[in-house]
Automatic annotation (TrEMBL):
Quaternary assembly: Heterotetramer of two alpha and two beta chains arranged as a dimer of alpha/beta heterodimers.
GO biological process, one term: spermidine biosynthetic process
One GO term describing the cellular component: cytosol
NCBIfam families, per database record: SAM_DCase_Bsu
Mod. after translation: Is synthesized initially as an inactive proenzyme. Formation of the active enzyme involves a self-maturation process in which the active site pyruvoyl group is generated from an internal serine residue via an autocatalytic post-translational modification. Two non-identical subunits are generated from the proenzyme in this reaction, and the pyruvate is formed at the N-terminus of the alpha chain, which is derived from the carboxyl end of the proenzyme.
Keyword S-adenosyl-L-methionine tagged: yes
Stated name of the protein: S-adenosylmethionine decarboxylase proenzyme
Gene for this chain: speH
Site (Cleavage (non-hydrolytic)): E75, S76
Entries under InterPro entries matching the protein: AdoMetDC_C, AdoMetDC_fam_prok, AdoMetDC_N, S-AdoMet_deCO2ase_core, S-AdoMet_deCOase_pro-enz
Pathway: Amine and polyamine biosynthesis; S-adenosylmethioninamine biosynthesis; S-adenosylmethioninamine from S-adenosyl-L-methionine: step 1/1
């Protein structure tokens, strides 16, 4: 592979891939029915990861108050789906290039006041 590529693939420890895709499950999460809180957490996560926010779209469901949405990034996306009645939030965090998706984990734990989480990482587009 050429070093002058413009596709923002990552090369790390001899492996070249498109980006990191984190699957984050949060349990015992608080405030996951609060649209403003979810949006602020997403904005902070984008900032901390060094990503570029293009657009956020969130939808608030009735009657349970769940939130689904996405932050579209130049580097890919962060999506969220919440089940406030269960205290559960499912997030997908996919970023390429120099963005650092692992830095978003403490942001979401802090924003939703939980340390009950599970993280899975998948390297996308392995060459």
């Amino acid at each position: 592979m050429s070093d002058d590529r413009l596709d923002h693939f990552i090369t790390e420890n001899g492996l070249t891939f498109a980006g990191r895709h984190l699957i984050l499950d949060l349990w015992e999460a608080k405030g996951i029915d609060d649209l403003e809180r979810v949006e602020q957490a997403m904005r902070e996560a984008v900032r901390i990861a060094g990503a570029t926010l293009l657009h956020i779209h969130l939808h608030h469901f009735s009657p349970n108050g769940g939130v689904s949405g996405v932050a579209v990034l130049a580097e890919s996306h962060i999506s969220i789906h919440t089940w406030p009645e269960c205290g559960y939030a499912a997030l997908d965090i996919f970023m390429c290039g120099d963005a650092q998706p692992m830095k978003t984990i403490p942001v979401f734990r802090r924003a939703f006041e939980t340390d009950q989480s599970q993280i899975t990482e998948h390297k996308r587009g392995v060459v």
